[in-house]
C-alpha cells in the first residue's frame, strides 16, 4: 500500500516536472524602450512592428515610446537597427524570466478567491457559479464556446426587474491572453457588486451589469501553462503551423488595415475574415441578440494606464466624444484618488495607436452604445504584461472606483 502511494506521488511529481519543462523560457529576454522622438523614428518602428516578428509590447506611440521584447539572439539585431537610425533606447526589463517567476502559478495552493494571486479559468468559473448559487441577483450565462470548447461565461448582476428600457453596462477582460490583470480587475468588480452590494444599492436598482472576465479562455490557459506571453486565441489556421488570431482585431467594424496584419504568425493577425473567432462571435451575438438597452461598454486591457474612447481606426472623433470625455475625466479622477495612479484619457488613435477591427470600435460603430471605453490598466512598463500579484488588489480597487463613476452616470445616480 505504501509502495503504491509512493508510486502515485512519484508519477504526480514526474507529471509536474513535465508540465514545467514544457513551458517556454524567457531566460535572457529583455524589453527595450525605444524613444519615438520624431516622425522618422515612428515610421521606422511602425515598419519594424508590421514586417518583423518582434513582439511590440506597446507602441510605437508618436512622441512617446515603443516597448519591444527581444530574445538574446534578436537583441544584437534590434540594437543595431535602433542605433543605425539614431533611436535612443533603454532597458525596461533585463531578464524577463526573472520577472515572470514573480507571477508563476504552477505551485499555487488551492486558496479561496482573493485578489493576491492569479487564478485559472476553472477556478474563476467555480467562484462565479458559487456566487450565482448563493445570490438571487446573480446569474451566470453561457454565451458560447471557444475553439477548444471552453465555455465563455458572463455574469449578470441586477437587483431590479430587467426590461428593454432598463440601461445596461458591459465589462469584459482578457481578450488578449497575457493580460491577466484584466481578469482579476473584472472579478474584483464582480465581488464589489455582489459581496459589497449595499454600498452600490442605488446603482444596482437602476442598472443591469454584465461582466465577462475571460473573453479568451483558450489563450489565457495557454499563457498560464505554456507561454506566458501568448496573446492570441488558439484557433488552427490554414497553411501554417502558427496558431491563433488577435481576437481584438477580428470584430467586423473597419476590419483590416492599420494595426493589423495578414501575417498569420503575427501577434496582431486579424484572421481570414471578420468574426472567424468563436470568442468574438460570442460577444457579438450576445450583445446584438439580447433584448438589452446597452448604454455602456468597457473592455479591460493592459498595459499603459489609459482610459480610451473610440475611435481606433481613425484620429477623427465620435459624435459624442465630448460627453464620453466628460465621464472619462471624472472616472480617471476617481481612480487617481484611490492610490494616486495617473491615467491619461483620450481617443485610442490619438493617445495609443491606430487599430482596426477592435471590440471597442465595433461597440460604438454597430450597436452604437453611448459610453464606450478601453481601459489599459497598470503599469507603464516596469513590469508590463507580467504585473506582480502585489499589484492585483490596488489595480482592482482604483479601477473599480473609475468604473463606478460610469455606472452611476448610466444609472442616473447622484455622485459626490
TrEMBL record:
CDD domains: M14_CP_A-B_like. Its cofactor is Zn(2+). GO terms for biological process: proteolysis. Residues 117-410 form the Peptidase M14 domain. It is found in: Secreted. It comes from the Eukaryota. GO terms for molecular function: metallocarboxypeptidase activity; zinc ion binding. InterPro entries: CARBOXYPEPT_ZN_1 (IPR057246), M14A_act_pep (IPR003146), Peptidase_M14 (IPR000834). It holds the Pfam family Peptidase_M14. Keywords: Carboxypeptidase, Disulfide bond, Hydrolase, Metal-binding, Metalloprotease, Protease, Secreted, Signal, Zinc. The active site is at residue 376. Its main location: secreted. Residues 1-21 form the signal peptide. One of its GO terms (cellular component) is extracellular space. Belongs to the peptidase M14 family. Involved in the digestion of the blood meal. This is Peptidase M14 domain-containing protein. It comes from Allacma fusca.
Amino acid at each position: 500500500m505504501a509502495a503504491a502511494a509512493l508510486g502515485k506521488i512519484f508519477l504526480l511529481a514526474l507529471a509536474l516536472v513535465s508540465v514545467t519543462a514544457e513551458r517556454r523560457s524567457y531566460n535572457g529576454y529583455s524589453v527595450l524602450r525605444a524613444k519615438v522622438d520624431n516622425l522618422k523614428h515612428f515610421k521606422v518602428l511602425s515598419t519594424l512592428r508590421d514586417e518583423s516578428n518582434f513582439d511590440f509590447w506597446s507602441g510605437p506611440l508618436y512622441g512617446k515610446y515603443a516597448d519591444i521584447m527581444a530574445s538574446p539572439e534578436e537583441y544584437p539585431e534590434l540594437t543595431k537597427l535602433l542605433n543605425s537610425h539614431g533611436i535612443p533606447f533603454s532597458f525596461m526589463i533585463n531578464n524577463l524570466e526573472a520577472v515572470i517567476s514573480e507571477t508563476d502559478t504552477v505551485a499555487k495552493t488551492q486558496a479561496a478567491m482573493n485578489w493576491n494571486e492569479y487564478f485559472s479559468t476553472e477556478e474563476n468559473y467555480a467562484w462565479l457559479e458559487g456566487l450565482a448559487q448563493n445570490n438571487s441577483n446573480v446569474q451566470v450565462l453561457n454565451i458560447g464556446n471557444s475553439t477548444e470548447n471552453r465555455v465563455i461565461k458572463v455574469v449578470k448582476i441586477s437587483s431590479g426587474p430587467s426590461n428593454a428600457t432598463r440601461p445596461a453596462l458591459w465589462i469584459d477582460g482578457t481578450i488578449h491572453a497575457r493580460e491577466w490583470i484584466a481578469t482579476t480587475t473584472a472579478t474584483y468588480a464582480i465581488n464589489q457588486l455582489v459581496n459589497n452590494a449595499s454600498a452600490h444599492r442605488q446603482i444596482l436598482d437602476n442598472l443591469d451589469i454584465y461582466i465577462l472576465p475571460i473573453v479568451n479562455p483558450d489563450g489565457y490557459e495557454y499563457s498560464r501553462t505554456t507561454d506566458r506571453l501568448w496573446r492570441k486565441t488558439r484557433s488552427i489556421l490554414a497553411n501554417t503551423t502558427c496558431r491563433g488570431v488577435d481576437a481584438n482585431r477580428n470584430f467586423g467594424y473597419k476590419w483590416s488595415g492599420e494595426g493589423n496584419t495578414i501575417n498569420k504568425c503575427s501577434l496582431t493577425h486579424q484572421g481570414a475574415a471578420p468574426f472567424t473567432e468563436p470568442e468574438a462571435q460570442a460577444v457579438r451575438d450576445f450583445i446584438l441578440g439580447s433584448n438589452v438597452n446597452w448604454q455602456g461598454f468597457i473592455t479591460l486591457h493592459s498595459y499603459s494606464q489609459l482610459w480610451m474612447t473610440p475611435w481606433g481606426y481613425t484620429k477623427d472623433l465620435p459624435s459624442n466624444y465630448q460627453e464620453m470625455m466628460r465621464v472619462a475625466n471624472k472616472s480617471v479622477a476617481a481612480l487617481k484618488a484611490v492610490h494616486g495612479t495617473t491615467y491619461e484619457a483620450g481617443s485610442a488613435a490619438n493617445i495609443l495607436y491606430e487599430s482596426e477591427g477592435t471590440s471597442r470600435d465595433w461597440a460604438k460603430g454597430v450597436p452604437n452604445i453611448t459610453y464606450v471605453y478601453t481601459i489599459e490598466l497598470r503599469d507603464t512598463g516596469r513590469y508590463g504584461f507580467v504585473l506582480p500579484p502585489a499589484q492585483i488588489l490596488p489595480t482592482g480597487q482604483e479601477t473599480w472606483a473609475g468604473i463606478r463613476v460610469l455606472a452611476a452616470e448610466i444609472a442616473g445616480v447622484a455622485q459626490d
